[in-house]
Design goal:
Layout: H1 3-22, E1 46-51, E2 56-60, E3 66-67, H2 72-84, H3 86-92, H4 106-110, H5 122-130, H6 137-152, H7 161-170, H8 172-183, H9 191-202, E4 205-206, H10 208-219, H11 234-247, H12 253-259, E5 264-266, E6 271-276, E7 280-285, H13 296-309
Antiparallel strand pairs: 1-2, 1-7, 3-4, 5-6, 6-7
Helix pairs in contact: 1-13, 2-3, 2-11, 5-8, 5-9, 6-9, 7-9, 11-12
This protein binds 6-diazenyl-5-OXO-L-norleucine (DON).
6-diazenyl-5-OXO-L-norleucine (DON) binds next to loops.
């Protein structure tokens, strides 16, 4: 199929694929361990696809606004790499999937040295947040927001105060992970200050268009889709995409690689960012999650699209 024929096909099929996937939401539930996320509409499903040649397609609840949650971790990793370089970041965090839940404490004590296995599990992401340059938590948060605004091209992008406060008040598990990391000298920075920046970047509000735009920047190896300017060095995007394949869908990343075959990252608010290298940035949201913390309908939709369009990179 030519690019044009592909686009015509996706345009015709997307509403049908989406309608089919929406009913899958009944097999999941919105996250509730962050109390504010429990109010999300369980059967919402939206998608946006942006093409490298500037076209946009949207379907379903594509303007539904949600918080990035773990999707933000891909970009805080990029920022930490840009601030500190590869060598310093990977002194503090590993490169391997865990096979455990995203908030697990298990392997921190089980293996030596006790650094988090990768930057996308909570322990790894909290560590990465501590590596972002800035004198104060406020300055670090501002730099994270500025980075997201630059990548999305949306100067109004900000975090949701209510979700932030809700997570901060209930984050007993993340707090225990962070104190454990501090005790092991993995976390050099102040625990509460680091967590504050972490909760804020997890609470950044976005819709599917923002996700698709972020994904397209990665699909273009760090280049701005409009100007072609380098926003992130290609090497760091390569690292981020590798983690998305091996750990982006947590301990369902192997299954996702087999069934969908695209670099992707999920968040507990139901968002999934996925990309077709060099061609498409995709943003999907469906708040009902499976027991691994991934959007049930969102994964179903990505699988349907990837199979139909033969998008797997493998
Ligand atoms: O730290 C947490 O638990 C949340 N702020 C983010 C977790 C998350 O999104 C895991 N995703 N599937």
């Amino acid at each position: 199929m030519t690019n044009e024929a592909q686009w015509q096909h996706i345009t015709a099929q997307l509403p049908l694929w989406l309608a089919k996937s929406r009913s899958e939401a009944q097999h999941g539930r919105p996250a509730s361990y962050i109390p504010e996320l429990a109010h999300a509409p369980a059967d919402a499903l939206g998608a946006v696809i942006l093409s490298a040649d500037g076209r946009k397609l949207e379907a379903g609840d594509s303007s539904y606004v949600f918080t990035l949650q773990s999707i933000s971790k891909v970009f805080t990793l990029l920022l930490a790499l840009m601030d500190q370089g590869e060598e310093r970041v990977f002194r503090k965090v590993g490169m391997e999937p865990t096979g455990d839940d995203f908030n697990s404490m298990l392997k921190l004590e089980l293996v030596e040295p006790g650094i988090p296995f990768n930057p996308l599990i909570n322990a790894g992401a909290i560590t990465v947040t501590s590596l972002i340059a800035g004198q104060t938590p406020t300055e670090r948060t501002s730099r994270v927001l500025a980075f997201f605004r630059e990548l999305t091209g949306d100067p109004a992008l900000t975090y949701n105060e209510t979700v932030y406060a809700s997570e901060k008040a209930t984050a007993h598990r993340n707090r225990s992970l962070a104190y454990f990391l501090k005790d092991n000298d993995v976390l050099d920075a102040d625990v509460e200050e680091t967590l504050d920046v972490y909760f804020k970047h997890c609470s950044i509000e976005a819709d599917c268009s923002h996700l698709a735009r972020l994904a397209l920047v990665l699909a273009l190896n760090g280049k701005d889709p409009h100007t072609g300017r380098e926003l992130v060095p290609r090497r760091y995007v390569q690292i981020a995409k590798s983690f998305m394949i091996t750990c982006g869908m947590y301990n369902a990343s192997g299954e996702f690689a087999i069934q969908v075959g695209l670099p992707a990252k999920s968040g507990v608010a139901g968002g999934i960012l996925a990309l077709v290298p060099g061609r498409y940035g995709i943003g999907v949201v469906g708040p009902a999650l499976n027991d691994k913390g991934n959007s049930v309908a969102g994964v179903h939709l990505l699988r349907t699209m990837s199979e139909a369009m033969d998008w797997s990179i493998f």
